[in-house]
Amino acid sequence: MKKIFSNLTFWVLTAIISGALLGHFKPDVAVEMQPLGTGFIEIVKLFIAPIIFLTISLGISGMGDLKKVGKVGAKALIYFEVVTTFALLIGLAVSYILVPGEGVATTATAGADVSKFTEAAENGFSMLDFLKSNFTIQVLLFSILFGIFLSKFSGKQRVVDFLTPISKWVFKVLHWVMIFAPIGAFGGMAYTIGKYGIDTLLPLGKLMVTVYVTMGLFIFIVLNLIMKSYKISLWRFLVYIREELLIVLGTSSSEAALPSLMEKLEKMGCSRSVVGLVVPAGYSFNLDGTTIYLSMATLFLAQVYGVELEFSQILTIIGVLMVTSKGAAGVTGSGCVVLASTLTALQVIPIEGLALLLGVDRFMSEARAITNFIGNGVATIWIANNENDFDRNAMELAFDNVQSSEDIFEDNINYKP
C-alpha cells in the first residue's frame, strides 16, 4: 500500500480521473483550474532549452568524430520524412475506408469565425518564419554549433568540467518539479472537460474513434515493427515511459514530458549525443500523430461537404502536408493553420469547415501529442541502434528496474547529482 501511494503513475492517473469528473459535474469550477495545467507546462518548458544545450554540447564535444554528428543528423531527417509520410498515407487510407465524415451536418459552421487561421494560411509556409517562431530549433542549432566549437577548443576540458555538474543539477531540479506533475495533469484535464464538455464529442464521435484507432494502429503496428527490427519490445518501452505518457495525456502537451523523456532514453542505453540531436529535432520534424490527424481531418471535411477528390488533389494534399506539417509544433493553433493552408491549396473544400473541428480539436490533441511523443522515442532508439550507439545491457537494466519508479517521490527528493 505504501508503494502505491508513492507511485507517480498512480497519482497522475488519479489526477486525470479527478479532473475529468470535476469538468463534467462542475464545469464552471473546472475551467478555473486551467492555470494549474498551463503553469506546470510553462515551468517544465524552462528546462527544455538548458537540457538541449547541455546534452548536445557535452555529447558532441565527447563524440570526437564530427562527421558522425552530420551523419546522425542526416539519418534522423531521412527517418523523419519516411515515417511521417507513411503516417500521412495511413491517415488517408483509413479515412477512405471508414468515411468518418459521412452524414455529419454542417449547420455548426454557420457564422463561425475562422479568420485567424485563414489569414495565417494566406501567408503560406515560410522556413524563415518557422525558424523564427520555433525556439526549440533555434536552441538545437546553437547547441550543435557550440558543441562543434567546444570539440575543437583547446580549453575544452575546463568547459566540460564546468558544464557537467550544471547538467546534473538541472536534472535534479527537474526531478523535484515532476513531483507536481499530478497537479498539472489535474488542471489540464479539468479545463478541457469543463470548457468543451463531453457532449461536444457526440456529433463527431465517428471521427474521434477513427482518429484514435488509426493512431493506435500506427503505434502498435508501424512503430512496433520499427522496434522489432532491433529486437526491442515496444510494450516494455511504453511501460518504461508510462509516467511521461500520462503527463502528456493529462496536459495535452508533449513538452510537459520532453526533458524527462530525454533523460530516460539516455538511461536506457541511447548515447547522449543521439538523444540530444534526435529528440529536439523530432519535436519539430517527426510529428507522426499530427500528420495522421491533419490528413484525416482534410478527407473528413471533403466527405462532410460531399467533395469527390481527384487523384491529383490527393497528391496535392500529400505534398502540402509533407511540408507544412513540419511546422505544426510549438505554436498554439498551428494545426488549424496548417489545415487551413491545405484547404486553401485544394480550393474545393469550404474553409468554414474548420469550425466543425474546433470543438473536438482539444480532445484529439491528446492522441496527437502521445503519438508524437512515442514516435520520437522510437526514432531515437532506432537511430541509436543503427549508429551502434546503444547499450542493450543498460536497456535491460532500465526495463527490469522499471518498478523502482514506484518510489519516485522518495527517489526524487533524495536524488544526488
Short summary:
The chain is an all-alpha fold and 417 residues long. It has helices at residues 2-5, 8-25, 27-31, 34-61, 66-98, 115-122, 127-133, 135-152, 156-178, 181-196, 205-228, 234-240, 242-251, 258-267, 272-285, 288-304, 311-324, 334-346, 354-386, 392-400, 408-413.
Report what the structure shows.
The protein has 417 residues and is an all-alpha fold. It has a single domain (2-413), classed as Sodium:dicarboxylate symporter (Proton glutamate symport protein), CATH 1.10.3860. It is built from 21 helices and no strands. Helix 10 packs parallel to helix 13 and helix 11 (205-228) runs parallel beside helix 19. It starts with a helix and ends with a helix.
SSE run = HHHHHHHHHHHHHHHHHHHHH
How much β-strand is present in the residues?
under 5%
Q: What name is given to the CATH topology?
A: Proton glutamate symport protein
Q: Which CATH-level-2 architecture?
A: Orthogonal Bundle
Radius of gyration: 22 Å
